[in-house]
Amino acid sequence: MLKYFVLGTTLWLVFGCAPTEEVTDATGVKQDRPNIVLIVADDLGYTDLGAFGGEISTPNLDQLANNGVRLTNFHTSASCAPTRAMLLTGTDNHIAGMGSQGTLVTPQQAKHRAYQNRLLPEVPTFTESLQKAGYRTYMAGKWHLGYVQESRPAARGFDHSFALMQGGAGHFDDTELFADYGATWLEDDEPVVLPTDFYSSDFLVETLKKYISGTPSEQPYFAYLSFTAPHWPLQAPATSIAKYKGVYDAGWDLLRAKRMAGAQAVGVVPIDAEAVDFEASMVPWNALNELEKADAVARMKVYAAMVDRLDENVGLLLKHIEARGELDNTVFIFLSDNGAEGHDMESPTRHGEWLTENFDNSVNNIGTKTSYVALKTAWARATAAPFRDSKSKVSEGGIRVPAFFSLPNQAGNGGGRIDSAYMRVMDLGETILELAQGEPNAQSMGRSLLPRWRGGVAPYAEDEVIAFEVYGRRGAQRGPWKILLQEPPYGTSEWQLYNLDRDLGEQEDLSDEHPKIRTALIAAWTEYAREVGVVLPEIPPRY
């Protein structure tokens, strides 16, 4: 049977760090085990961090990234829950039970195992293995992997958790994402009432600091910081928004050009790559009237403020770990769960009268607790300058994300390096388990990236096929060759073929020039779909 792999990508690891706990391997040699902090941003664009070419102030993440290894060919699924399922289980999202998510699961799909909209209990998580290996395990933030008892964090390998069960919520309170959607926060499986001074990024880090403080000194820990920022609704403290006054007044066309140049300057995009300058769904900045420009600028200011505030809180977490004397023995891993959100999440067809009755989206109120807006297409596309499309699409703008790892004592051990090898989110669990001296997950489709960090070969060979699907949008990749099938306006509803080595933006369909490559990759995708249980939606995607 041929072996197929699914999209996702994640991180790496450490040797030579100060001891947290010593364990003995099969040969009797003592091995040190580090603490591990995994940070996931929600809907962050590829060039949002300074270390990836952006203008937003992210000094704490930039320091970790620039002293660590930035991963420029790192892939996730195109949407939140499928990525998180692959992250925790090391398997394809369909095998884990998250072939789609939420109300996007169609009636026909819901009859099948791959579309149960929750982590299936028979599919193990790497955090369960970490518990068995003696690690304390914590999480704070977005869960989005099922509300039933057996799918909650407490049942899937976390000793302590403060979790938003749904896919998003207000950032100042428990305002739900849609009418009748709910916004349920649980701490250690019990409902909680949010404090009056709640702001998501602030509170999540304070909670994680509390959990870490309760760790016995002789025991290593794994901490999963799953931010809900910068997911819509775009909301941030006024002091954070004020920092970006005037920054985006020139519009998204200029921002896209600056982001592209910045990404090339820091080395995360090849210097000879060309930006995707225009897509049918975008409107040129100068075509807007003054009110439309003011509204758009307000949105981008708040988005930048959310990323800024996220970074500030990472800095507070770093200081807390340093104060405990553990910074020299902690691995940091960072990624976004997919590309930036480019949809119009405020359209009446999604909300009816709920939005207009409950929120004030006037320009001067955008970003406050009583507003509800999203970034929309053009700004989202500017955050992914070298790539096509954004979140929910399986073109590179939806699935290639900013990611890095930072290891203790990296001087002389690859610190500051950029790695362009293909990696994916489902590799993370096996990598962490090897680092933790835990038992490998027998069901995992991922592979440990530790040998790569040691200076070894790329984790995926040029002739391996990596296949993926979500919302009926399909793709498969072998080396630089990628096929893609998406419905209009994101595609043609036919398979298209691209060579990513010379066309990062997936602009030149090479199907006619290389029909054999296209045919072979289509066959590989078909076999993958059979093996993992893909059921294509019987109705067009609504997202």
Question: How far apart are the termini?
Answer: 34 Å
Helices and strands: which structural class?
alpha/beta
- Inertia-based shape: globular
Radius of gyration from CA coordinates: 22 Å
Residue runs with pLDDT of under 50 for 5 or more positions: 1-30
| Average residue-wise pLDDT | 91
Number of domains: 1
Any key phrases for this structure?
543 residues; alpha/beta; Alkaline Phosphatase, subunit A; 10-stranded mixed beta sheet; 4-stranded antiparallel beta sheet
In short:
By secondary structure, this protein is an alpha/beta fold.
Description:
Mean pLDDT is 91; it is low at 1-30. The chain has helices spanning 59-67, 80-89, 93-96, 126-132, 200-213, 238-242, 252-266, 290-323, 348-351, 354-358, 377-382, 396-399, 428-435, 450-453, 515-532, and strands at 21-24, 30-33, 35-41, 69-71, 74-75, 136-142, 160-164, 185-187, 190-191, 221-226, 330-336, 403-406, 417-419, 423-424, 465-470, 473-478, 481-485, 496-499. The strands form 4 sheets. Strands 9-8-7-6-10-3-11-12-4-13 form a 10-stranded mixed β-sheet, with helices on both faces. A 4-stranded antiparallel β-sheet has the order 15-16-17-18, with helices on one face. By secondary structure, the chain is an alpha/beta fold. Helix content is 27%, strand content 15%. Helix 4 packs parallel to helix 13 and helix 5 packs parallel to helix 8 (290-323). The chain has one domain: Alkaline Phosphatase, subunit A, CATH 3.40.720. The two termini are 34 Å apart. 54% of the residues are buried. The protein contains 15 helices and 18 strands.
